[in-house]
Amino acid sequence: MELNIAENRNHLNYSKWIYVKRILWTFGKFFFRNSPRIAFGYRNTILRLFGAKIGKHVHIYSSTVIWFPWNLEIGDWSAIGEETLIYNLGKVTIGEKATVSHRVHVCAGTHDYTDPALPLLRPEIRIGNQTWICANTFIGPDIEIGEGAVIGAGTVMVKDAESWGVYAGNPAKYIKKRILKH
Q1: Average pLDDT of the chain, as a whole number
Q2: Mind telling me which InterPro entries this protein's record contains (predicted)?
Q3: Range of 40's domain?
Q4: What is the mean pLDDT of residues 37-52?
């Protein structure tokens, strides 16, 4: 058995309309990336113009890389830190009051490694309300992070995280229950 990379490379993975949107986003990205650090509303407006569903009081930094804004939904009062990569070939949903810290990689795109042509897959990623994804974390394809979960710095998430759980490590392991102080 041998890989058939030529079939993968000669196949269009998207509709023509998606290719047009990608070209247009190349120009939109310029304005997004070259905006003042505190211009959160301005960047949110640009993302909305390209189809993102962005809640109120959302902070997304200009160094954040978002591949397909039309596949992004973020709830009210959430934040995405600097130099975070949102590789959202599939839909990425981030709940309300969620924090995705700096240099996180949210990866909603992969390939079917069992198929010789390695076709592109676009699974969803769902990050719940009140979650905290700490710095330098990798969130793999088709993952759900439950409400209130904390994913420790440098963690590699390849399985779902239960609500109000604390996870850390490579691969991620459940550490303990998250209990908020009153």
Answers
A1: 96
A2: Hexapep, Hexapeptide_acetyltransf, Trimer_LpxA-like_sf
A3: 5-177
A4: 97
Q: How far apart are CA 167 and CA 162, in angstroms?
A: 9
Residue in the structure block whose two tokens are 């993102």: 52
Question: Minimal CA–CA distance to 89: which of 71, 102, 101, 104?
Answer: 71
Residues forming a β-bridge with 176: 166
Q: What is the CATH number of the domain that holds 63?
A: 2.160.10.10
Q: Which two tokens stand for residue 97?
A: 């009051």
**Helical H runs in the chain?**
5-9, 16-33, 40-49
Band of residue 44 on the pLDDT scale cut at 50, 70, 90: very high
Looking at residue 161, what DSSP letter applies?
Answer: B
0.90 cut: is pTM over it? yes
What is the domain count for the chain? 1
In terms of phi and psi (left: phi > 0; alpha: psi -120 to 50; beta: otherwise), the region of 72 is beta
Instruction: Identify whether 182 is part of a domain.
Output: no
Residue pLDDT, tens place only, 104-129: 999 999 999 999 989 999 999 999 99
How far apart are alpha carbons 7 and 131 in whole angstroms? 40
Q: Residue 10 falls within a domain, yes or no?
A: yes
Measure the CA–CA gap between 159 and 18, rounded to whole angstroms.
Answer: 29
